[in-house]
Design goal:
Layout: H1 3-12, E1 26-32, E2 38-46, E3 53-61, E4 66-67, E5 73-76, H2 84-95, H3 101-106, E6 110-114, E7 126-129, E8 142-150, E9 164-170, E10 180-184, E11 195-206, E12 214-223, E13 230-239
Antiparallel strand pairs: 1-2, 2-3, 3-4, 3-5, 6-11, 7-8, 8-9, 9-10, 11-12, 12-13
């Protein structure tokens, strides 16, 4: 660990608890491709400690729940006076060769559920929704359950926090049916930093003109930050 990094981490624990203010990114759904094969969302904010504006765009192949080549698109402006609007514009411009924003806007889908990281009354580990606004409902509900998994040997935490991975399942609705395992960590990607916990943030759905409908489960990550816990987002996708 560098001396600068060690000093920064030590400073984190010298700040009074009431004075800590981690960086909570804002998540924005960008949309899907017309056939539901691609899902995209953005997270953006101002980094705690440095004050640098950043914008990250994630483009996911919903067939195999993996990032498209050349993504995520990440921008952080490390110069005085740089604005959040500039960071977002740069990220948007870089991403247009992947899929045009106009296509995503036309296929934004439906936000079937959403809980911000400041929501205290919501269950952070269970989210059940009707997948589209049809009343009375004609679709089976979607239910997702998240479990945190202790990862005590995560090297990126440097012993300063108890890292966690997660398991996500789509719960069985019909009697006798089996739950679908959507994701289970065996290790923690370095891109997550030092994740301390997770919560279900939302569900976005799309019913394309052809083919099965698609969902994206948005998960908020609470991670070790410079001035307090930071919040970032990931998505897990699939068809139903």
């Amino acid at each position: 660990m560098s001396i600068l990094r060690a000093a920064a981490l030590a400073a984190l624990f010298l700040i009074p608890a009431e004075g800590r203010a981690g960086d909570a990114a804002t998540a924005e759904i960008l949309g899907f491709s017309a056939d539901g094969g691609i899902f995209a969302f953005e997270e953006y904010g101002v980094q705690d400690g440095s004050g640098f504006p950043y914008a990250n765009r994630y483009y996911i192949d919903t067939a195999n729940d993996s990032f498209l080549p050349g993504t995520p698109v990440r921008v952080r402006l490390e110069q005085d006076g740089a604005s959040l609007a500039e960071a977002r514009a740069q990220a948007r411009n870089k991403a247009q060769t992947i899929i045009d924003d106009a296509i995503l806007v036309e296929n934004r889908g439906f936000t079937a559920g959403w809980n911000t990281v400041t929501e205290r009354s919501a269950d952070p580990f269970r989210l059940e929704v009707d997948p589209r606004p049809v009343f009375p409902a004609i679709d089976a509900p979607l239910e997702f359950r998240l479990t945190e998994l202790p990862m005590p040997d995560a090297a990126q935490c440097h012993g300063l926090g108890e890292a966690a991975g997660f398991r996500l399942v789509r719960a069985a609705i019909a009697p006798g049916a089996q739950a679908d395992l959507l994701h289970e960590d065996s290790s923690i990607p370095t891109s997550r930093g030092c994740p301390l916990g997770y919560r279900l943030a939302g569900v976005q759905t799309l019913y394309p003109a052809e083919g099965a409908p698609v969902f994206a489960v948005i998960i908020a990550i609470r991670a070790l930050g410079f001035e307090g816990p930071d919040h970032r987002y990931i998505a897990v996708t699939g068809r139903f």
